[in-house]
From TrEMBL:
GO terms for molecular function: acyl-CoA dehydrogenase activity; flavin adenine dinucleotide binding. It comes from the Bacteria. The keyword Cell inner membrane does not apply. Its cofactor is FAD. InterPro entries: Acyl-CoA_Oxase/DH_mid-dom, Acyl-CoA_Oxase/DH_mid-dom_sf, AcylCo_DH-like_C, AcylCo_DH/oxidase_C, AcylCoA_DH/ox_N, AcylCoA_DH/ox_N_sf, AcylCoA_DH/oxidase_NM_dom_sf. Gene3D superfamilies: Acyl-CoA dehydrogenase/oxidase, N-terminal domain (1.10.540.10), Butyryl-CoA Dehydrogenase, subunit A, domain 2 (2.40.110.10), Butyryl-CoA Dehydrogenase, subunit A, domain 3 (1.20.140.10). Belongs to the acyl-CoA dehydrogenase family. This is Acyl-CoA dehydrogenase. Keywords: FAD, Flavoprotein, Oxidoreductase. Residues 249-397 form the Acyl-CoA dehydrogenase/oxidase C-terminal domain. Coiled coil: none annotated. Residues 136-237 form the Acyl-CoA oxidase/dehydrogenase middle domain.
Length: 405
């Protein structure tokens, strides 16, 4: 696809229309809403701030737009959804995560819809799609990040249900969520014959966050400064059989399901941030005067801008190539690892160069390029660190994974 800081989609009229309407909403109505509330990226969000955005985005057709038509969406392809996620990421909006349902909404619920019973759909998930409820996802623990099997949160049988005890961290959207999709280790009885216990099993539960035995605590504030994380503390919290998502033992499959898809779909948001950093740098180089001429007249600045643009174009091209393979029915597993690695590393380099171009103005806390620098630095760790991606790529090469196609 041609290089542009405002990509067009002339070959896809539906997508071109959606992108145009999304840009209008982000830069117009949503920007004005944020300004009226005086919001910054470090504001503490309340439900009363967020719900109007969920519902308005739903009215405009963006909230849950990726879902099938029968669930109120437009059945977008992965490539089309990625284009919208990139636009949101490039907008600079404080509440960008609430437009498509990334934070607590339909995109956060993700693939769990396929595991839900009719009762679970009616009580938990359809209200999320409508912007009436919000959910969070609770998998990570202090000593169980990349090694999720080390989790200690335990589900102990109690009649037909279970008692949950444990402590989850980094539950994004937890501060304003109604329920959590929570993964726990199943308590297994010790074998009576003294043989070693079998492999641990994990299950997924829909946990109401106002239930007895559940405490939602303020989580750590990430370097982005956003107040979107919470700890979920469970102390003998009872969950009934109707709150078990899928079957006993399906927890990791549900929690880590569609990893290739999710890994790829995180990349467009980072690409949007990189695009924003590049666009801000181009504008700054055009308008900033040094020694009686625009900053952009300096060859050193021109070369930085050229390298930033080339890195963005390469990262974007490989991401959309892998998404096209996904849309074609393939599973570009190795390519997804490559995209996550390349996008994360190069998006951060673009943000780093943006700070350098802005000079002292880029070092000021709260300036947009400084914020992008912090956000894109996080992406090198979130959703799987760059080292994890390299391990997987190398393993694919050494073990001779079957090539796609």
């Amino acid at each position: 696809m041609p290089f542009s800081l405002t990509p067009g989609y002339d070959d896809n009229p539906r997508l071109a229309d959606l992108v145009g309407r999304l840009r209008t909403y982000l830069d117009g109505e949503l920007a004005a809403y944020e300004a009226d509330l005086g919001l910054t990226h470090e504001s503490v969000y309340t439900r009363s701030m967020l719900e109007p955005v969920w519902k308005r985005s739903r009215e405009l057709g963006f909230y849950g737009i990726h879902l099938p038509v029968e669930q109120g969406g437009q059945g977008l392809t992965f490539t089309e959804l990625a284009a919208l996620k990139e636009e949101v990421g490039a907008s600079g909006r404080v509440l960008q995560h609430s437009v498509l349902g990334e934070m607590g909404g339909p995109l956060r619920a993700g693939s769990i819809l396929q595991y839900a019973t009719d009762h679970q759909l009616e009580k938990y998930l359809l209200p999320v799609i409508r912007g009436e409820r919000a959910c969070c996802f609770s998998l990570t623990e202090t000593d169980a990040g990349s090694d999720v099997r080390a989790m200690r949160t335990t589900a102990t049988p109690d009649g037909e249900g279970w008692r949950l005890t444990g402590h989850k961290v980094f539950s994004s959207a937890g501060p304003f969520a109604d329920f959590s999709v929570l993964i726990a280790r199943m308590a297994e009885p010790e074998p009576e014959d003294g043989t070693p216990p079998g492999k641990p099993r994990f299950s997924a539960f829909l946990v109401d966050l106002d239930a007895p035995g559940v405490t939602v605590e303020a989580g750590e504030t990430p370097m982005s400064g956003e107040h979107i994380e919470s700890d979920i503390v469970l102390d003998d919290c009872y969950v009934g059989p109707g709150q078990l998502l899928g079957d006993v033992g399906d927890g990791l499959r549900i929690g880590l399901g569609r990893v290739t898809t999710n890994r790829l779909l995180h990349c467009p948001t980072a690409l949007g941030g990189a695009r924003r950093a590049l666009a801000l740098s181009v504008d700054f180089a055009r308008t900033r005067q040094v020694f009686g001429a625009p900053l952009g007249a300096l060859q050193s600045i021109q070369h930085k801008l050229a390298d930033m643009a080339a890195a963005y174009y390469a990262a974007r091209a490989m991401t959309y190539d892998a998404l096209a393979a996904l849309d074609a029915g393939d599973e570009p597993r190795t390519e997804a690892f490559m995209c996550k690695l390349f996008v994360a590393e190069n998006a951060f380099r673009i943000a780093d160069d943006a700070v350098q171009i802005h000079g002292k103005a880029g070092l000021v806390r709260g300036s947009e390029v400084e914020l992008l620098f912090r956000q894109l630095r996080m992406f090198r760790i979130l959703t799987g660190s760059s080292e994890i991606q390299r391990n997987a790529i190398a393993g694919s090469l050494l073990l001779g994974d079957r090539p796609r196609g």
